[in-house]
TrEMBL record:
The gene is trmFO. This is Methylenetetrahydrofolate--tRNA-(uracil-5-)-methyltransferase TrmFO. The keyword Ribosomal protein does not apply. Keywords: Cytoplasm, FAD, Flavoprotein, Methyltransferase, NAD, NADP, Transferase, tRNA processing. It is an enzyme of class 2 (transferase). It catalyses: uridine(54) in tRNA + (6R)-5,10-methylene-5,6,7,8-tetrahydrofolate + NADH + H(+) = 5-methyluridine(54) in tRNA + (6S)-5,6,7,8-tetrahydrofolate + NAD(+); uridine(54) in tRNA + (6R)-5,10-methylene-5,6,7,8-tetrahydrofolate + NADPH + H(+) = 5-methyluridine(54) in tRNA + (6S)-5,6,7,8-tetrahydrofolate + NADP(+). It is found in: Cytoplasm. Belongs to the MnmG family. TrmFO subfamily. It comes from the Bacteria. The lineage of its organism: Bacteria, Pseudomonadati, Pseudomonadota, Alphaproteobacteria, Rhodobacterales. Its cofactor is FAD. The keyword Secreted does not apply. FAD binds at G9, G10, G11, M12, A13, G14.
């Protein structure tokens, strides 16, 4: 049993960690509390369930840091990327998936692996012995969260993450809306028409902002603070920051031409992204919200094209828990006070499905190598995974530590390249070329 790796949590990070360690020959037990213990956001007991969006964001591995992370995970035989590709939906330059078949396939692959078993039930204490990875994500149970707090001696850090609503496609008014990806991105017609677009005039936009600001919102419990992660702000919070904020964010009208009246430039555009393979569901892009349900239906039906919309799911809000990792974890993702325990995924302070799965991949390999008596250095700093792990385990300022997406701002400069916007394309290509070379060398050293 001392050579068994226990993983708490079967989300993106836990699923990927299990796959990587099992493929290295280590016995793995996944401890998953669902469906016995439910959460606000999850709907099923499947592993790797997608609760917020169905998008893994950009798939461009030459000019985008997220796309580079996709590349690294594929190079490392990542399960999440394999199943994402299998259940891919048209989404322009993004990697979006049919969420239910995706999670079902991940679950089936893990259950079929001879080195993996799943034990249902909640883990409420930090184990004192054995090899463990805690990958409980942003919805860590209150009991385990309290145990982590007792061990670390620090208050849990938290931000509020909001879920965007999903609309039934056949209730969208296509006399108003049209299909187009921004800048017509994508190589196929399906990719170039992966989004539904709902245009707004200036008057419609101003009325929409007024309604957002006046709508009833979910109240926070006493003692809670709204420390939102900027990459997942509720739309009403963005509106409070300035009336033009949404028009320069998720409602920006650039790169789009109204198919019904090409000569009329919309003042703002609401985009909906396909959410399943059948094309029957679309989620409203960037429309995370903490409005109450009744207010949501009223406000969202003000969007031209959605005046008669029916909602498969309304938005919601939940508390996300994460560690102050720069003070608590070493560069092997181990808890400094209990090195038999690693943490992985969003609970470490990375943000997003891709980043969570990547940290699971890394934790699984590091833990398996340690169990097998062949310690493994962490991913090189100039790779996407390495840049992330360096940031959360020491590169970030501990006093102001907040969840972070992967981005080129975490990468060390390449000598001889210009800074600024004009040199960005060459600089990003240099980052990704360097990262791919170093990541391949890191993988080859493990053979």
């Amino acid at each position: 049993m001392e050579n068994t790796l226990h993983i708490v949590g079967g989300g993106m990070a836990g699923s990927e960690a299990a796959w990587q360690a099992a493929n290295m020959g280590v016995r793995v037990i996944i401890h998953e509390m669902r469906p016995q213990v439910e959460t606000f956001a999850h709907r099923t007991g499947n592993l790797a369930e997608m609760v917020c969006s169905n998008s893994f964001r950009s798939d461009d591995d030459e000019q985008n840091a997220v796309g580079l992370l996709h590349w690294e995970m594929r190079a490392a035989n990542g399960l999440i990327m394999q199943m994402a590709q299998r259940h891919r939906l048209p989404a322009g330059g993004a990697l979006a998936v049919d969420r239910d078949p995706f999670s079902e396939s991940v679950t089936q692959a893990l259950l079929a692996h001879p080195n993996i078993s799943v034990e249902p039930g909640e883990i409420t204490e930090l184990p004192s012995d054995g090899h463990w990875i805690i990958a409980t994500g942003p919805l860590t149970s209150s009991a385990l969260g309290a145990a982590i707090q007792r061990e670390t001696g620090a208050e849990r850090l938290a931000f509020f993450d909001a879920i965007a609503p999903i609309v039934y496609a056949d209730t969208v008014n296509m006399d108003v809306a049209w299909l187009q990806s921004r800048y017509d991105k994508g190589e196929t017609e399906a990719e170039q028409k992966a989004y539904l677009n709902c245009p707004m005039t200036k008057d419609q936009y101003e009325a929409f902002i007024d309604a957002l600001l006046a709508a009833d919102k979910t109240e926070f419990h006493e003692g809670e603070t709204a420390g939102y992660f900027d990459g997942c702000l509720p739309i009403e919070v963005m509106a409070e920051r300035g009336r033009e904020t949404l028009r320069h964010g998720p409602m920006k009208p650039v790169g789009l031409t109204n198919a019904h009246t090409p000569e009329n430039k919309p003042y703002a555009v609401v985009q909906l992204r396909r959410d399943n393979a059948l094309g029957t569901l679309y989620n409203i892009v960037g429309f995370q919200t903490k409005m109450k349900y009744g207010a949501q239906t009223e406000v969202f039906k003000m969007i031209p094209g959605l005046e008669n919309a029916s909602f498969a799911r309304l938005g919601g809000i939940h508390r996300n828990t994460f560690l102050n990792s720069p003070t608590l974890l070493d560069d092997q993702m181990r808890l400094k006070s209990r090195p038999n325990i690693r943490f992985a995924g969003q609970v470490t302070g990375v943000e997003g499905y891709v980043e969570s799965a990547a940290m699971g991949l890394l934790a699984g390999r590091l833990a398996a190598a340690e169990i097998l008596g062949k310690p493994l250095p962490t991913a090189p700093q100039d790779t996407a995974m390495g840049a992330l792990i360096h940031h959360i385990t020491g590169g970030a300022e501990a006093k102001t530590f907040q969840p972070m997406n992967v981005n080129f701002g975490l990468f060390r400069p390449v000598d001889g390249l210009k800074g600024g916007r004009r040199g960005r394309k060459d600089r990003y290509k240099a980052y990704t070329d360097r990262a791919k070379e170093e990541f391949n060398q890191w993988l080859e050293a493990q053979i």
